[in-house]
């Protein structure tokens, strides 16, 4: 009977990990898709930078970005517990930071879009993009130094690393595009 229960327990753990891996992939895909649909109108990065501020971003696309960031936070929240049920502070704090950075990046892009169209001075926006870039890098570096043994925590870390890197790409692209469209430094 013990062997039978251990086998069932093992199957449940394996199937749980397979479902978690699929949901981790879905969370990453949703985050990437939402930001890509909102801000990257072509696949060619040189063209994206030239036309980044030419397109209006509708509120539906922006709301999808906010929802995708909230989904990442929710995923990490549900996958950051240890065997006793205590949540990992680093993972949860990084998820909260990612959500805030996503919001800040979107707001900075919206403000920059208005400044570019009015030919205003963009130096303050460059500084904001640089701070967002550094914050993403620091969070990713700190998280990258941690190693986890529990598979759910590994998946949460993987999702956070991916989304932080993708957000950093967005922030750098927005900054470079502002430099091309407006007054370069």
Please name the defining characteristics of this protein.
185 residues, mainly alpha
Mean pLDDT: 83
Q: Compute the number of structural domains.
A: 1
Task: Give start-end ranges of low-pLDDT stretches.
Answer: 2-21
Query: Strand content of the residues, in percent?
Result: under 5%
Sketch the major β-sheet.
none
Helix content: over 70%
Secondary-structure-derived class? mainly alpha
Give the CA-CA distance, first to last residue. 72 Å
- Total number of helices: 6
H/E topology pattern: HHHHHH
Structure summary, number of beta strands: 0
Radius of gyration: 19 Å
Overall geometric form: elongated
What would you note in describing this structure?
Helix content is 80%, strand content 0%. By secondary structure, it is an all-alpha fold. The chain has one domain.
Chart the SSEs and their pairings.
Elements: H1 2-39, H2 45-51, H3 59-79, H4 89-117, H5 123-144, H6 151-181
Helix pairs in contact: 1-3, 1-6, 2-6, 3-4, 3-6, 4-5, 4-6, 5-6
Please summarize what this structure is.
By secondary structure, this protein is mostly helical. 80% of the residues lie in helices and 0% in strands.
């Amino acid at each position: 009977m013990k062997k039978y229960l251990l086998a069932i327990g093992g199957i449940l753990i394996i199937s749980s990990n397979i479902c978690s891996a699929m949901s981790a992939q879905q969370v990453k895909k949703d985050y990437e898709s939402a930001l890509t649909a909102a801000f990257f109108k072509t696949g060619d990065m040189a063209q994206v930078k030239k036309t980044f501020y030419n397109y209006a971003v509708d509120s539906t696309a922006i709301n999808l970005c906010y929802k995708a960031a909230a989904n990442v936070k929710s995923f990490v929240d549900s996958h950051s517990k240890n065997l006793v049920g205590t949540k990992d502070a680093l993972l949860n704090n990084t998820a909260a930071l990612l959500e805030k950075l996503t919001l800040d990046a979107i707001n900075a892009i919206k403000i920059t879009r208005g400044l570019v169209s009015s030919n205003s001075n963009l130096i303050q926006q460059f500084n904001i993009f640089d701070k967002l870039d550094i914050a993403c890098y620091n969070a990713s570096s700190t998280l990258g130094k941690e190693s986890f043994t529990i598979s759910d925590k590994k998946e949460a870390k993987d999702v956070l690393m991916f989304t932080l890197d993708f957000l950093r790409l967005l922030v750098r692209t927005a900054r470079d595009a502002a430099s091309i469209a407006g007054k370069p430094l």
